[in-house]
Design brief:
By secondary structure, this protein is an alpha/beta fold. It is 42% helix and 14% strand. Strands 3-2-1-8-7-6-5-4 form an eight-stranded parallel β-sheet. The longest helix is centred in the C-terminal third of the chain and has 19 residues. The relative contact order is 0.16. The structure holds phosphoenolpyruvate. The site of phosphoenolpyruvate has 13 residues, from strand 8. Phosphoenolpyruvate binds next to strand 8.
Length: 249
């Protein structure tokens, strides 16, 4: 059975004090759904957030990591470093990393391999640009992003992979894919997985939707059969809003 997951991507927001305050607020919220809850603070706050979230049912995860184990990569963080402070999951391939930090399918394949080698679960993000959707190319773009970065993996590796479909035109714009657009793409992603790895594996992988999910639209999006949760940006920075989304399941 695949899991429901709601993950908050805090991006480059919140210093240590705000991190403490937001985690304290999150811990006061009542959880009424079966979704796994994750938050992704910045690197400098991961250790503190990890300590503060113990026994809260909230998993603290990373926003990114490097593919090398260690060495001369100034400003980067390795899988081993994340593991050494207890982090077990990371986001990879967020569209902002692809757009502003030149991450490519090829470099992401290397990052995914490093995560797998260190037994780190990956929330792998991908999604088309507005121009792709206008040209009707969204399915082929998404298919190639998934195939190029993930289809060298063994079937076993997918127990540590969560997919996050995030149409770039819906991230931080207030514009959301309609529930039907999300469902269509998620069903296509599952079919793509099934063609390569079989139906059982495709049915077991959680596929999250990301792109302006808010308390007022989460329920409808999450009601779709192939949508297993959400990757939440802006709305994850307010405890009440984030838990309204968590509880939309
Ligand atoms: C994101 O950054 O992954 C995201 C979905 O952001 P927002 O919810 O703000 O659109």
């Amino acid at each position: 059975m695949r899991k429901h997951i709601v993950a908050g991507n805090w991006k480059m927001n919140n210093g240590i004090i705000q991190t403490e305050t937001l985690i304290a607020d999150l811990k006061k919220q009542e959880k009424t759904s079966n979704a796994e809850v994750m938050i992704a603070p910045t690197f400098t706050n991961l250790w503190h957030a990890f300590q503060s979230s113990k026994q809260s049912g909230i998993e603290v995860i990373a926003q990114n990591m490097h593919f090398a184990e260690e060495g001369a990569y100034t400003g980067e963080i390795s899988a081993g470093m994340l593991k050494s402070i207890g982090i077990q999951t990371t986001i990879l391939g967020h569209s902002e990393r692809r757009a502003y930090f030149n991450e490519t399918d090829e470099s992401l394949a290397k990052k995914v391999d490093a995560a797998m080698a260190n037994d780190i679960r990956v929330i792998f993000c991908f999604g088309e640009e507005l121009s792709d959707r206008k040209a009707g190319n969204e399915a082929s773009v998404v298919e190639s992003q998934i195939k190029n970065a993930l289809f060298h993996l063994s079937a076993d590796a997918f127990t540590n992979i969560v997919l996050a479909y995030e149409p770039v035109w819906a991230i931080g714009t207030g514009e959301t894919a309609t529930p039907e657009q999300a469902q269509d793409m998620h069903a296509f992603i599952r079919k793509t997985l099934a063609e390569k790895y079989g139906n059982d594996l495709a049915d077991s992988v959680s596929i999250l939707y990301g792109g302006s999910v808010k308390p007022n639209n989460a329920k409808e999006i999450f009601s779709k059969p192939d949508v297993d949760g959400g990757l939440i940006g802006g709305a994850s920075l307010k405890a009440e809003d984030f838990f309204a989304i968590v509880n939309a399941f």
